[in-house]
Amino acid sequence: MTDQAIGERVARELRGLARVLVRSGYADRAALTAALTEAVQEDAPAADPAAVAPELIAEALADLSADEETWPVETDPDRLDVVLNELESLGLVVVRYTSDHHAAREALESATAPKGLVFFTDTDVWHAVDFGMLELKVWHPDTANVAPGEPLLEDILALLQERELPATFDEGRIEVTVNWQRRIQL
């Protein structure tokens, strides 16, 4: 991808989008390609998205691969997955990397006798990739937010602490300090 063809600022933004999409670890190659193709069409209409999108993905994957060599065996997202799996085993609905709260609500409403809902969105993960903090939303079965002092909230915070994931409850959500090092395979 030549920055001159699409402009330095747009090239930087497209690389940034590719970076968070790839590092999120939740999108497959088809989803990555679709999202980046759309972004190229919108932000760089003179560029060929069929050529640019794969280049962006390859560059982001190469950067990720180089970084992975320095990661610990067990990463924060690995420990987060353990917590989320445990919450599912306790009867909570867990929705990872959803597009929005409406999709999470649908999952909750379609579940049989859920104990609650824990979810995070794609943009929450992108924020974690760049800034080291993931927002978890926690709802009761009736979609009400948990509140300070409630057993459901306290149990989730305790599980996160047990897995060495510092977390605090603030303004209706759990803020988890996480170094987003998610291994991926495309």
Describe the structure.
This protein has helices at residues 3-6, 8-24, 29-43, 49-68, 76-89, 101-110, 122-131, 151-162; strands spanning 92-98, 116-121, 133-139, 167-170, 173-177. With 186 residues, it is of the alpha+beta class. The chain folds into two domains: 3-68; 76-177, no CATH class. The chain has a five-stranded mixed beta sheet, sandwiched between helices. The longest helix is centred in the first third of the chain and has 20 residues, at 49-68. The chain is globular, with a radius of gyration of 18 Å.
Which structural traits does this protein have?
alpha+beta, five-stranded mixed beta sheet, 5 strands, 16% strand
Give a quick rundown of the structure:
With 186 residues, the protein is of the alpha+beta class.
